[in-house]
Amino acid sequence: MRNDEETTLTPDRLLDAFFGQAGINWKALCLPSRAALAFQSGGLESLRALSKAEPIGSWVFPISNQPLFVGEYHGEEVLVAKMPVSAPNAVAYAECLILLGVDQMIVTGAAGSIHPEAPAYALVATTSAVREEGTSYHYLSASTIVQSSDMLLARLQQAAEKRSVPLRRGPTWSTDGVFRQTQAKVAHYRSMGILTVEMELAGLFAMAMKRGIELAGLLVVSDTHYDEPQIVSFSEQYQQSQHVGAEIILDALCQAEG
Fold it and tell me: Which spans in 163-235 are helix H?
């Protein structure tokens, strides 16, 4: 009998096609179970420097066309990689990493703030996501609240407290319409206590819940949309926030002691 839930394109078929043409046996790859994943180059470089991560092989990974890196932090092995932008690409990429053994992921990237509780440069640990994108609905029903791993969220909080770094916690609004964040929508979601807006976390949370893995997001506020809008993502202070966020992510994943 046909299984209507069976998909026609799967991560293993994609990896077979991608690596097969290069003669690489991807099934022999053994990735760390923990992954620190960055959407932006600055976050990636901080994660790499802190964990002394080096590339695996000379090939790039499908979907992202970027290498994978493996490093060590607090004596624990960790995967470091650059996530592709947009929910469909990020989720497909994460699905491939799961196939290769990853079951704990913390992702970091830029986010717009729609609430004064999340000012410019702030670090925000995302608790759940408003689903105004398309990808999450292919994993979970429309009535399901998509949310972070409680375990990783608690570890992020502990890591921030150990470093005496303020960490905001709250929901995000995931949208496909980068330039359709209207004043009416911003005001509506702000009134609901939503702190940030970005593109990927609703899809990533839904996928993680469906697949039974741990996933959390730590966002860095790169632009604000309350009072007078401003963009701060090109400033030195923003880069510093990315670096501090990378330290917290690695502490949380690798469970720093002391």
Answer: 183-191, 201-211
Residues facing 231 on adjacent strands: 223
Contact 132, 86 (CB under 8 A): no
Token pair 């009072």: residue: 227
Please state which of the ranges 23-27, 30-34, 86-90, 199-203 shows the lowest mean pLDDT. 23-27
Round to whole Å and give the CA distance between 33 and 5: 27
With contact defined as beta carbons under 8 Å apart, do 230 and 224 qualify? yes
Return the DSSP state at 161: H
Range 15-21 contact pairs with CB under 8 angstroms and sequence separation of 24 or more: 15/62, 15/96, 15/99, 18/62, 19/59
* CA 240 vs CA 8, 35, 79, 121, 156: distances in Å: 43, 21, 22, 9, 18
List of residues 6+ apart from 147 with CB closer than 8 A: 127, 128, 129, 205, 209
Architecture of the CATH domain 29-254: 3-Layer(aba) Sandwich (3.40)
Contact 111, 220 (CB under 8 A): yes
Residue pair 36/79 in contact by the 8 Å Cβ criterion:
yes
Query: pLDDT tens, 216-244?
Result: 999 999 999 987 788 888 889 999 999 99
CB 229 within 8 A of CB 113: no
Q: What are the domain boundaries of the chain?
A: 29-254
Both structure tokens of 129? 């996501």
Phi, psi of 79 (to 5 degrees): -85, 135
- The answer to whether the beta carbons of residues 253 and 106 sit under 8 Å apart is yes
